[in-house]
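Escalated from tier 1: flavin mononucleotide holo job.
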Amino acid sequence: MARILVLYYSSYGHVSTMAEAVAAGIRDAGHEADIRRVAETAPEDVVKNFGFQHDESHDLIEGPDVLGEYDGLVLGAPTRFGRLPSQMAAFLDTCGGVWASGALIGKPGAVFTSSNSQHGGQETTLFSMITNLMHFGMSIIGLDYGFEGQNGIDEVKGGAPYGATTIAGPDGSRQPSQVEIDGAKYLGRRVANTAAKMAG
Ligand SMILES: Cc1cc2nc3c(=O)[nH]c(=O)nc-3n(C[C@H](O)[C@H](O)[C@H](O)COP(=O)(O)O)c2cc1C
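Tier 2 regenerated the structure:
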């Protein structure tokens, strides 16, 4: 059985919902998943003016070193101008110790995101987080085409070979659709099954 950390930041709940789906995929496959969030670092006036939620749906990450205790890591964060948000970057920038220890080398890592528009930078955001995971020495797991739900143009939907995604819509009111949830579950399952094989 693999033990996977799902670590996210979310301002309005979309990425939080996707984190739950990633974790559900891990657990459905018989593995263990912990969901943690990184701290809000935006100034209080920004939090207020932009209506960021005070996310208490999951516990805060205990610190950077716990990352090394897991068999795999799945990072999720919304798009900010086509890249990862400062809240997630701020946490990752505290991970020098875990990087230096080599504790994540060779372990599977994956990413997921959300954006308001369909082409508002999902893939570049995914890659901005993949960059970090590769510096940690992780082996990247994508949302491979075994997940057929990402194909087709029958409906508006997220999902990319580089990670699971959802689209929040121009006013943020759209919630993750069934196919997007299924993509997140597939990604979680794939990471956990890979971690179990690598550890074995
Ligand atoms: C400062 C800022 C920059 C953003 N930049 C983008 C962007 O480049 N492209 C886009 O489609 N959405 C952008 N958004 C919208 C967010 O990606 C959207 O609110 C988020 O995906 C919702 O996820 P959440 O509910 O987990 O926070 C931006 C939002 C903020 C507050």
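The chain has one domain: 3-199.
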